[in-house]
Amino acid sequence: MPLQSLSLTEQNDLWLQNHVEEIGDYANKSELVNDLIKRARRAEVINKKSKRTEVSEFTEQSPQEILAEFKLLLLQINTSKFN
User: Could you give the CA distance from residue 83 to residue 54 in angstroms, rounded to a whole number?
Assistant: First the structure.
C-alpha cells in the first residue's frame, strides 16, 4: 500500500485520534481515513446515479430495481473493485 503524508488541522487530527481510541473499530488513524475515503467514494457513486436521474427527470427503473442496483454497487465497492 502506498505511504502517504497528510496535513490535518488540529481539530481533524483530534477527531481521528478520539474516534480510534473511543470507538475501537479501527486500529489506527490510517484505517479510519481509508474507510472514510471508501465511504465517500460509495456516496459519490450513489450521488452520480441520483443526479443523472434528476437531470433526465425520469427513470424507467422501479424503486426496487434502483435499490437492487445500489446494493450491487455497494457490494462491488466493498469487495475489491474500489479497494
Answer: 29
Residue 79 and residue 41: Cα distance in Å, rounded?
13
Which 8-state DSSP code applies to residue 66?
A: H
Structural element, H or E, at residue 82:
none
**Residue range 17-76, pLDDT digits in tens:** 999 999 888 999 999 999 999 999 988 988 888 887 777 766 677 888 888 988 888 888
- For residue 57, CA distances in Å to 25, 50, 51, 66 come to 40, 10, 10, 15
- Let me know how long the chain is: 83
Q: How far is CA 80 from CA 19, 24, 45, 74, in A?
A: 25, 24, 15, 11
